[in-house]
Amino acid sequence: MDPRTYIRILQQVEPLKNYTRHSWTSQGRHESVADHSWNLCFMAMLLKDELPDVNMDKVLRMCVIHDIGEAFTGDVPSFNKTPADEELETKRLQAWVDSLPEPVRSEFAALYAEMDALETMEAKVYKALDNMEAVSQHNQADIATWIPLEYELNQTYGADKAQCHPWLAKLRQELRKDSQEKIAKANAVQSQTTDLYLKEANAEDWLNEYEFLQAIPADENGFENSCHGMTPEQFRAEALPQMTAWAKEEQMPKGFVPQTTFFLWKGNRIVGMFKVRHYLNDALRNGAGHIGFSIAPEYRGSGYAKAGLRLALNELKKVAPAEETHAYLSCNIDNPASLAVQISCGGIVHHRDETHQYVRILL
Asked: Which of 4, 236, 250, 264 lies at a 20 to 30 A Cα distance from 29?
């Protein structure tokens, strides 16, 4: 194979890095076909000692090339794939294989034929791992990225393929346990957050608001709390009136945008705080965005941030300009908990820099 042909082949499969799959990563982006293929290869590589009677080098080669057809068609989720989709991918993949120089063409053609037949142990192991990689990735992603049918599908997908080897059958059982635990945890969180509600900052609740703000540091992960360390008298006489006034544009300082401060209540306790900015100026559009939030330390990890952010997004819809299609949010690069909350509410990581991740949520 001459160098120019080698480069051409690399260029032909490069779209696998660009085409995304239905699955999401733990950090809130769609995984690419290449992401899936790499993880599948890693799964196969780790099993050489567990499956000594299987030619894992051949399995690894199968994993490397198994989704190359999607470089020419993109990915279609298994539950949406039609016979016509299968036929198109097969046709384009075959044309690509036929264009390859020998001996690569013959090697790839033989591997694809073996994979399609699913008769050898190597082909069966590759296919079982391919299915289980998708389940494993779903288990690592936020459950908010699952669609309704996946609550059942992720417990059964690939179970029949895993029966080809006892070790793989055990792996499938463990993945099912992970899916079930994830579903149970999500259900428990939902039941704990049904009685949460947002309430604007107001003078009647000033003592509850003051006590909450003293539990939140002055600057924690980018959330600024200028009320921390104030005396009760200062908060009631100065900070609270300013907080309520800033919800009205005519009372905002020049260069600022109106911001409504909401406290998140559970029963008669304040458990969180959400700042909702009505629209964005250039600084906010390239920085903090529409919504900032913090949850009291003792209530973190209980699903309150996710529930509160959904409520705050509803409030933003009431005040945002009609042409604003997305909510802008951000978080520190080293604050995965905040990012997970934003992703669980439909957020997509738009871009990153050295200090922050910037998220967009469709309104």
From this structure: 264
User: Amino acid identity, residue 222?
Assistant: G
> Which amino acid, one-letter code, is at 43?
M
Compute and round to an integer the Cα radius of gyration of the chain: 26
Mean pLDDT by 10 residues, the chain (363 residues): 96 96 84 97 97 97 97 89 92 96 97 97 98 97 85 95 97 97 84 85 97 95 92 96 89 86 96 97 94 94 91 96 95 90 88 93 92
Return d(Cα 2, Cα 30) in angstroms, integer.
Answer: 35
Interior CA angle at 217 toward 214 and 297, to 5°?
A: 80
Cα separation of 43 and 50, whole Å?
11
Of 331, 278, 279, the C-alpha closest to 305 is 331
Q: How far apart are CA 35 and CA 312, in angstroms?
A: 34
Which residues, other chains included, contact 303 with Cβ-Cβ below 8 Å and sequence gap of 6+? 189, 190, 192, 193
